[in-house]
Specification:
The protein is α+β, with helices and mostly antiparallel strands and 569 residues long. The protein is built from 18 helices and 11 strands. The longest helix is centred in the last third of the chain and has 40 residues.
Length: 569
């Protein structure tokens, strides 16, 4: 088994036309090839490198990570002598991927990374998540390494980034007992130690994924007398300083191999990342966007695993003289599962390409001045990454939960039993729409792009893209969905965009737009792919889903009255 080679969709997105620009930016047009023996010679060589590494990831995911996942779920991590000890299977996974040089894939080669763009890196995250969604939290480093690379001093980068390839783990310590989604309320105190020329951290962090990591990025209040985000800075704590107490590991519903800890910082020495007061406003916001991209990959990977479990069981299970996959009630579920995976995967890599472009331009800008055209392209890519990320996190995580739910339903009574993998997948899926920003917070992030028309402008760009004549009937159906969406928004606008009623209807509007975007993405995929890849089929199914859902949303919004808010209170 190989979780890369058995999924032709991954190779399809790796060959997307925009990859040419991404690779050239990442490799600086290959001008340094003579100075770096590991550097690819051209785009084709680079893509071939990504392909070969992803084959290795696919092999290890299928034959090591997936094989260990059940035992990891049963054993889980433990606290021994104030240190978190992984389950045996987790430790094996960690060692295998470390020894294969697969940690910190996106870091530059000067830090012992592979200098991979985000697209193949996110593909690796999807593959790892398909094998064990919990382990992807450890391997993926929660975007901490990229945050250090982007914002830390050269001294910090030179000291810590080379350690990633050696297997040093990372975590972001953000939330506290009284500061979950409201990170402006963080109270953990940072004070400067003049004598030792370092910062000291004191306080409690809660629900910290991979909490006992080697390298921890900590959000703390550095400015006395402040109570909001402007008083927060970002710090790096080195676990080797032994100044943090692991109070406990949380007993979770799912992703049990990934330790979630409560930590007490006891005058812990730390180094500041970037500038004071910019911890939440700049660095954590960037980190969270990267982490949400990771959850998108995690969601798609888990959904892929659940879909394949459902298909395999439905083909093998016979009732009334035939396999249950031949019953309409079953194949309807499975067909929709596949369409949802194709749709969210397309959204995942669309978002990732925008992230790749603006991150690459930002990196280039530190070496030379960007041209006016490059600056414009960077702003365009960053704006689109910002608006696509919450849409991705919302739909990928919600669909992963739905697909895991339907996987159990396909299994019937067997799916409720511990002997079947779908039960674990269902438990693992539940966190996806909660951590790194709940679905409700993704709506809050996305609704401003509804209000300012940015999403609608992107739809117009999709409409301008050419498609084959035989796909035009699908385009026309999507155009009708757009008309329904516009009517939904115009109806909601009558309440006033700053009203409670508008906020109440926000999720309806965001969901309608998300469906519209995914329909367009699948149409573009169908236009570029061969018929046997099934994108046209998934596009038709997603259009049918979108037609039904947007009609339902429009009916709800048209019948909604401001006084109806009291019914929910």
């Amino acid at each position: 088994m190989n979780f890369y080679n058995d999924n032709e969709n991954l190779k399809f997105y790796l060959s997307h036309p925009v990859m040419d620009k991404i690779v050239k930016l990442r490799e600086r047009d290959f001008v340094n090839i003579d100075d770096d023996v590991m550097a690819p010679s051209d785009v084709e060589d680079a893509i071939d490198n990504y392909d070969k590494v992803l084959e290795i990831v696919g092999d290890l995911a299928a034959n090591v990570l997936e094989a260990n996942a059940e035992d990891v779920d049963h054993e889980g991590p433990h606290v021994i002598d104030n240190a978190i000890v992984y389950a045996k299977g987790t430790q094996k996974n960690h060692e295998v991927l470390r020894d294969a040089g697969l940690y910190g894939m996106s870091l530059p080669r000067k830090y012992n990374g592979l200098n991979f763009p985000y697209v193949p890196y996110v593909m690796a995250a999807e593959i790892v998540s398909r094998a064990d969604a919990g382990f992807s939290n450890i391997w993926g480093l929660q975007d901490c390494a990229e945050t250090i690379y982007e914002f830390a001093s050269e001294e910090i980068k030179d000291k810590y980034l080379p350690l990633i390839n050696k297997g040093f783990t990372c975590s972001m310590a953000l939330t506290e007992p009284d500061a979950g989604s409201d990170l402006q309320s963080v109270r953990l105190k940072a004070s400067y130690d003049e004598e030792n020329k370092c910062w000291r951290l004191n306080g409690v962090k809660r629900f910290i994924t991979n909490g006992d990591a080697d390298i921890q990025l900590v959000l703390a209040r550095s400015e006395e007398g402040t109570t909001d985000g402007r008083g927060l800075s970002y710090f790096l704590y080195d676990r080797r300083d032994n100044a943090v107490t692991v109070r406990r590991i949380e007993n979770k519903l799912g992703i049990k191999g990934s330790p979630t800890a409560e930590l007490v910082f006891n005058n812990a020495p730390a180094q500041i990342i970037g500038e004071r007061r910019m911890g939440l406003i700049k660095y954590v916001m960037s980190l969270m966007n990267g982490a949400r991209l990771g959850v998108g990959a995690q969601s798609v990977g888990l959904a892929e695993a659940a879909y394949r479990e459902a298909v395999e069981y439905a083909r093998q299970r016979e009732q009334f003289g035939k396999s249950i996959i031949n019953f309409p009630q079953v194949y309807e579920m499975i067909g929709v599962m596949k369409a949802k995976i194709d749709a969210t995967r397309s959204l995942l890599y669309e978002t990732t390409r925008f992230v790749d472009l603006y991150k690459a331009y930002d990196s280039v800008s530190k070496e030379r001045s960007l041209t006016a055209e490059e600056r414009q392209d960077m702003k365009y890519s960053q704006r689109h990454a910002d608006m696509m990320t919450p849409m991705l996190k919302l739909f990928a995580s919600e669909y992963a939960n739905q697909i895991a739910y339907d996987c159990i339903q396909v299994h019937g009574g067997s799916g409720f039993m511990k002997e079947y993998k779908c039960e674990r997948l269902y438990r693992d899926a539940r966190i996806l729409s909660i951590y790194e920003g709940t679905s409700q917070l993704q709506v809050v992030a996305a609704i401003r792009f509804i209000g300012n028309g940015a999403y609608l402008k992107r739809i117009e760009e999709y409409e301008a893209m050419p498609i084959a004549e035989e796909l035009m009937p699908l385009r026309q159906r999507i155009d009708k969905i757009k008309e329904t969406y516009i009517e939904i928004v115009s109806t909601a606008d009558k309440f006033g965009t700053s009203s409670e009623a508008y906020d109440f209807l926000a999720r309806k509007m965001v969901e309608a737009m998300g469906l519209l975007i995914m329909c367009h993405l699948l149409l573009q995929d169908a236009n570029r792919a061969s018929k046997d890849m099934g994108f046209e089929r998934s596009c038709k199914l997603m259009i049918a889903q979108a037609e039904a859902e947007t009609t339902k949303i429009l009916t709800f919004v048209q019948n909604f009255k401001e006084e109806d808010l009291s019914l929910y209170k």
